[in-house]
Amino acid sequence: MENSQFPAAKVDWVKFYEIINKGGPVAISIVGASVLDELLRRLIVHFAQNRTLGKKLVNKDGPANTLRNKILLSYSLGLITKDEYNNLESIRNIRNEFSHSLGKSNYDDNTIISYCNKLTMHGDLQFVQALSGHERLKYILVSMSAKLALRQTVIKSQSKFEKYIENYMADTKASIGK
Asked: What are the respective helix, strand and coil percentages of the chain, to the nearest 5?
């Protein structure tokens, strides 16, 4: 059961894809970064040896309560690759440009264009490089969200399997000792 101080956020995937496909630049950047923030939070919590402590790391008062700190922690623990780290940093910077700069509401700003152009995929797929900056951002947001959600599910399943093995071994030792 989730701690009431820090309930798990639900990702509404249908709404997320609607915003990515039909939303304006500000909405796409802020919602996309928020979804990635939540997925990194889940990844860290499920990777932690102690989930209670993992939640404390990423809760609103924890040391990894910001997107930047979740990115740094995830990379330092090997939960994301260098390319993913760089993409997440670019996405965070794009979000910050829209969030903290009055008047920016499209992708025509040189700073935002620069961050969008830094977004890459493993192997530098030619079709990704051919995408315009904002189309590349949309593609990376969707693909990174899917990868992080899948990675979190794998880690969660692995943890359950390890607990099953521990219980099996404990039961086996107990039955041998009888």
From this structure: 70, 0, 30
